[in-house]
């Protein structure tokens, strides 16, 4: 996958060259097509993706379940996601590349997450999204399972101000699914429900966060959970006052420049363990 393509004959497309390189590595079974790779990925991107996995565990967003992906930095039609495993244990060697139909490019015997379609289908319809987090964090579930909307309690959670839809799997999958987004049709329905929002809850399941970078996605996943716990507590005390739309928009703009600060702290804590 680290082959140099700049020296190849000009009459061969880059995709065709990648495909031939991958075919040698992946050895697809008879009749099975392995998608072409988007090309080598900078080590820094992989490092951030691994750190994102560890941070989300350390900050109580994921446990043995949940995942974070990043769109391939050089090919918008590919994304990167760990093999099926607990996020806290992910290393660089566990990262698999997928096409947007969520077919693995370089699995090499590694097992994929059942719910990888969440990622591929969101990347298909949201060109602005570069990273997606899916989790089952406990604080948000009450808002997914009741009619109480999740709304921004403070300036750090202002990104919730553009609304938080809830995905009802029965609408797309009927009354007897196992609740998992285990195929492209369910992933497509989920992505459509997310629309232009950055956070969506999943009834009886968890949540999805979509953002412009790994750091932003981790930031939003953490503060979605924090906000949910704050809101539940505030509602026990009385009727909360939420950020209005103008406050939420202004705070989100300010926060965009500050995401790197908590990231460094979270990363040091999570990677030191
Ligand atoms: Zn799930």
What does this entry show, briefly?
The chain is of the alpha+beta class and about 270 residues long. The protein has two domains: about 1-35, no CATH class; about 40-270, Class II aldolase/adducin N-terminal domain (L-fuculose-1-phosphate Aldolase). Helix content is about 40%, strand content about 10%.
Overview of this structure, please?
- The structure is a single chain.
- This protein has 273 residues and is an alpha+beta fold.
- The chain contains nine helices and seven strands.
- It has a seven-stranded mixed sheet with strand order 3-2-1-4-7-6-5, sandwiched between helices.
- The two termini are 31 Å apart.
- 42% of the residues are buried.
- The protein binds zinc ion.
- Residues 115, 134, 136, 205-206 line the site of zinc ion.
Name the features.
single chain; about 270 residues; alpha+beta; 7-stranded mixed β-sheet; 9 helices; about 10% strand; disordered N terminus; binds zinc ion
């Amino acid at each position: 996958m680290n082959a140099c393509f700049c020296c190849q004959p000009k009459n061969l497309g880059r995709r065709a060259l990648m495909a031939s390189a991958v075919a040698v590595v992946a050895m697809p079974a008879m009749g099975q097509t392995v998608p072409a790779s988007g090309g080598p990925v900078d080590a820094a991107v992989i490092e951030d993706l691994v750190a994102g996995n560890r941070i989300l565990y350390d900050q109580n967003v994921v446990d043995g379940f949940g995942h974070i992906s990043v769109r391939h930095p050089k090919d918008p039609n590919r994304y990167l996601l760990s093999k099926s495993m607990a996020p806290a244990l992910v290393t660089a060697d566990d990262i698999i590349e997928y096409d947007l139909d969520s077919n693995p490019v370089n699995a090499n015997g590694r097992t994929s997450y059942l719910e990888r379609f969440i990622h591929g289908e969101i990347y298909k319809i949201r060109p602005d999204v570069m990273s997606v987090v899916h989790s089952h964090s406990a604080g948000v579930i009450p808002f997914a399972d009741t009619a109480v909307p999740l709304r921004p309690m403070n300036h750090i959670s202002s990104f919730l101000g553009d609304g938080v839809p809830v995905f009802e799997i029965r609408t797309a999958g009927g009354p007897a699914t196992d609740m998992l987004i285990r195929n492209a049709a369910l992933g497509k329905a989920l992505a459509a429900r997310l629309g232009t929002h950055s956070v969506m809850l999943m009834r009886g399941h968890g949540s999805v966060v979509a953002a412009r970078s790994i750091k932003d996605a981790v930031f939003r996943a953490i503060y979605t959970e924090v906000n949910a716990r704050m809101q539940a507590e505030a509602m026990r005390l009385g009727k909360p006052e939420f950020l209005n739309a103008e406050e939420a928009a202004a705070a989100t703009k300010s926060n965009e420049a500050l995401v790197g600060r908590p990231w460094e702290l979270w990363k040091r804590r999570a990677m030191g363990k």
